[in-house]
Design a protein that fits this description.
The complex is a heterodimer of chains A (498) and B (307).
Chain A (H helix, E strand, L loop, with lengths): L3 E12 L2 E12 L3 E5 L6 H8 L7 E6 L2 E2 L5 H6 L2 E4 L11 H8 L19 H6 L14 H13 L5 E5 L7 H16 L3 E6 L2 H7 L2 E6 L2 E7 L5 H9 L18 E12 L2 E11 L3 E5 L6 H8 L7 E6 L2 E2 L14 E3 L3 H4 L7 H5 L1 H5 L9 H6 L16 H13 L5 E5 L7 H16 L3 E5 L3 H7 L2 E6 L2 E7 L6 H9 L3 H5 L1
Parallel strand pairs in A: 3-8, 3-9, 6-7, 7-8, 13-18, 13-19, 16-17, 17-18
Antiparallel strand pairs in A: 1-2, 1-4, 4-5, 9-10, 11-12, 11-14, 14-15, 19-20
Helix pairs in contact in A: 3-5, 8-17
Chain B lengths: L2 H33 L7 H19 L2 H25 L4 H19 L17 H4 L4 H6 L4 H18 L1 H11 L1 H6 L4 H27 L11 H11 L4 H23 L6 H5 L1 H16 L8 H4 L4
Classes of the chains: A alpha/beta (498), B mainly alpha (307).
Organism (chain B): Devosia ureilytica
Subcellular location (chain B): Cell membrane
Keywords (chain B): Cell membrane, Membrane, Transmembrane, Transmembrane helix
Chain lengths: 498, 307
């Protein structure tokens, strides 16, 4: 049994009422790659940020080399040889690679010229890790993958014994990700412990020695590499079936296509949608399943008219509602619950009443009082129309957006993670409102990470992977979460059935 | 080339250098301030106060060096007001800079009345008995004071400081992102206060050179917008200390040219002719933007001031 470098003993972290990490215990050993796998909001980043000194633990203890760690900030963590690479880089794009490395290097001399031999050491790790990067290049001219390598060099320059990588492959192309997997194994080979926070099974498969699965703040499983099948891991990630009485309204007997996606394609630097075709009938609920980061967010923004299409069209009752050029102004007729509603769904500096009347305001109409009862109906707390949206808690912002979008009857609904951050009572309320819309004839496109809820509440399930629609399944009660999970991870339908 | 030609060129060169010297100090100071992500329109006021205090001290003590030092200090002290308003009270940088300018304008107009018509001991010329014997060099040296060489040295030092030293790197980092700089253990407020004071010091010195060395008189509003021109020239010099020198020399050359055209009896309104330096600099600015279109050299945190 190898020595533990870091040990978490029953660590809990609360943010107000929210329990981000619940009684987590695990250890990190020198020279191993430990993958911490979980969906968004599972608590994996919070757990590692506690180790890095960004948050203190509410309960429990973190041991470093067997003794209680005294880490009260990133500076302490670095002094103890713990480095972390975040999703958002801390490089200065206008400066050269060398200057960026010198900036965080504790041994930078006063005279930092190239001619000063005492500055040579700062480039050693760069030369090992990425000899193709010229240290004189300006960081903004590097690719995202190269910038990440520079970030990694910054961490290695502090003689890190433990490197924490937060979702490192989410910004990388597949080729860059493969190369990063190689670097990670190389680091582990040198005796450095690597904690890899990820929700991608590809990362786990490529380089993890041990796999920790987190779900809703708890560590649900720790296993050696190869001890679990992919489908088992996904099932653990997504959670055991919980008994929830979700019953969607019966599908209409005659199917009238209402919301039609024809060969929808869109492009973003890190993701592309490739020819998604889907027809949703009046009163039908289609759930979109997929591991996070497989194009669901782009699909939602394309359907909502936020992101322009590169090809294809989106029709609502036969009329195109898609944005085709970036210069077109599209006001979506859909009831649209966006991802991260605080950033994408409300104007923080406007009152609740004005936020409920945003579409009226956009058309130059005055905000009327007719939305006032929505706040009570959807339990927005406090139900004060004059309050600024920015003062609400995350869950209440979510409810505010849902009140606006589901408060009146819509022709079609696009809901992205509509229950994220809500308590059980609120979740029931959201689903009831969504199903009522469908019962009255709305076509519903519902993106969720909760496979159980999708299986319980949708008529058909579309599975997305790498920007494509890989399967469209009738949810006739015979679908199993394992089968859908397998499709999400890239097996074909027949393989999954086997 | 005839000897006469060389003599004329040398005379133009010296006139250009002397006319540009106050501007070089002010522009250099403002460049450093903007590199840490702060814009200081108070440069005009700091120059004016430097000119006034420098002249007053020069007259009172009879020592021009003491005058220059006093002027520089006055500029630095006034710049602390800008630092306090912007960094301490969170005031708008443009508004704060204008306030500093107006305060200096009012104060120097009021207290400077006693200085009008006074005589100041000038800086000694660089010429000496033995150099007078050398043709051309002797003439050049005899028309120059230490002010211009000091400006050249300041430019070289600032460029070296910013690009070759660790504190210089910290200054640049603060200008790009105070947040990331702080994450790397740098104290952005301390860096910014220091840079603003250095900027004020250089602007005050530039003003004092203007009154004590260049014109050797005091007149109300004698900087005539040079401090504001300095703020603009920073953009032309693309926030690089080394480019401050050619840009300021170009401005000085056009200024000298218009003055000499006027005295040569050139038929154009002196007011219109007076705009020539600004037009030339504007053309250079447009030209440099067209050439270097893809990359703006503006420090990232400075952009936030205008958003």
């Amino acid at each position: 049994m190898p020595e533990s470098l870091v040990q978490f003993a029953g660590v809990t972290r609360r943010f107000g009422d929210l329990i981000a990490v619940n009684n987590a215990s695990l250890d990190i050993r020198a020279g191993e790659v430990l993958a911490i796998l979980g969906e968004n909001g599972a608590g994996k980043s919070t757990l590692m940020k506690m180790l890095y000194g960004l948050y203190p633990a509410s309960e429990g203890q973190i041991l470093l080399d067997g003794a209680p760690a005294k880490i009260s900030g990133p500076a302490d963590a670095m002094r103890n040889g713990i480095g972390m690479v975040f999703q958002h880089f801390s490089l200065l794009p206008a400066l050269s690679v060398r200057d960026n490395l010198l900036l965080s290097w504790p041994k930078t001399p006063f005279w930092k010229s190239h001619r000063n031999a005492r500055t040579d050491d700062v480039l050693t790790s760069l030369a090992e890790l990425a000899p193709q990067i010229d240290p004189e290049r300006i960081v903004s001219s590097l690719s995202v993958g190269e910038q990440q390598l520079v970030e990694l060099c910054k961490v290695l320059n502090i003689n890190a014994r433990l490197v924490i990588l937060d979702e490192p492959t989410s910004v990388l192309t597949p080729a860059e990700a493969t190369r990063l997997h190689g670097f990670i194994k190389q680091l582990a080979g040198r005796g450095v412990a690597v904690a890899l926070i990820t929700h991608k099974l590809a990362d786990v498969e490529a380089c993890a020695d041990r796999i920790v699965v987190m779900r809703r703040g708890s560590v649900v499983d720790i296993a050696e590499r190869g001890a679990r099948s992919m489908a088992e891991t996904v099932a653990l990630m997504m959670g055991q079936s919980v008994d929830r009485t979700l019953r969607p309204p019966p599908a209409f007997g005659r199917t009238v296509p209402r919301l039609v996606l024809e060969n929808v394609s869109a492009q973003r630097p890190d993701m592309s949608l490739q020819g998604i075709s889907l027809s949703i009938a009046a009163g039908e609920i289609v759930g979109v399943a997929g591991v996070a980061g497989n194009g669901q967010a782009l699909l939602a923004e394309a359907v909502a008219g936020v992101e322009p299409l590169t090809a294809g069209d989106i029709l609502l009752d036969g009329v195109s509602i898609a944005r085709h050029t970036p210069f077109e102004a599209v006001s979506t007729p859909l009831g649209y619950i966006p991802e991260q509603p605080r950033d994408n769904g409300v104007v923080a500096t406007m009152s609740l009443a004005r936020n409920l009347a945003l579409r009226d305001l956009a058309q130059g109409k005055r905000a009327t009082g007719r939305h006032a009862n929505l706040l009570e109906r959807f339990n927005v707390n406090p139900p004060d129309p004059a309050k600024l949206a920015g003062t609400l808690s995350g869950g209440n912002v979510q409810k505010l957006v849902i009140a606006r979008e589901l408060g009146i009857q819509r022709d079609a609904i696009l809901a992205c993670y509509p229950t994220m951050g809500l308590d059980l009572a609120a979740i029931e309320m959201v689903y009831a409102a969504m199903f009522a819309q469908a019962a009255s004839g709305a076509a519903v496109l519902w993106i969720s990470e909760d496979l159980d809820d999708l299986l319980a509440g949708s008529h058909r399930i579309a599975v997305m992977r790498e920007g494509r629609l890989v399967a469209l399944l009738d949810n006739d009660g015979t679908l199993s979460r394992e089968a859908v999970g397998a499709l999400m991870t890239g097996m074909t339908e027949t393989e999954a059935a086997a | 080339m005839s000897v006469e030609m060389i003599a004329i060129l040398a005379s133009w060169g010296i006139a250009t250098l002397r006319s540009a010297t106050p501007l070089i100090f002010a522009t250099l100071g403002e460049t450093l301030v903007q590199r840490v992500g702060i814009i200081n329109l108070g440069t005009e006021g700091e120059m004016l106060l430097g000119a006034c205090v420098g002249f007053a001290v020069g007259v009172a003590t009879g020592n021009p060096w003491l005058g220059l030092m006093a002027g520089a200090l006055a500029g630095a002290v006034l710049s602390l007001l800008h630092a306090g308003l912007v960094l301490g009270a969170g005031a708008n940088q443009i508004g704060s800079g204008l306030a500093v300018w107006m305060i200096a304008l009012g104060a120097t107009s009021y207290f400077g009345r006693a200085l009008v018509g006074q005589q100041v001991t000038p800086l000694p010329s660089l010429g000496s008995d033995w150099s007078d014997g050398i043709p051309l060099v002797g003439t050049i040296l005899s028309q120059m004071t230490m002010a211009a060489p000091m400006a050249l040295a300041a430019v070289v030092f600032a460029a070296w400081w910013l690009n070759q030293t660790r504190p210089g790197l910290h200054w640049k980092a603060v200008g790009e992102s105070a947040l990331i700089a702080a994450e790397n253990g740098i104290r952005p407020i301390r860096v910014r206060v220091t840079a603003i004071m250095v900027g004020g010091l250089l602007a005050g010195l530039g003003g004092a050179i203007l009154s004590v060395d260049y014109t050797q008189t005091w007149a109300q509003e004698m900087t005539k917008g040079r401090g504001l021109v300095a703020v603009g020239l920073v953009i032309v010099a693309r926030w690089k200390p080394a480019l401050v020198l050619p840009v300021c020399l170009l401005f000085g050359l056009t200024e000298v040219a218009t003055l000499r055209l006027q005295s040569a009896g050139f038929e154009l309104s002196p007011h219109l002719l007076g705009t020539a330096p600004y037009l030339v600099v504007l053309l250079v600015l447009v030209g440099s933007h067209v050439v270097a279109r893809r990359a703006s050299a503006m420090p990232a945190d400075l952009k936030a001031v205008f958003q």
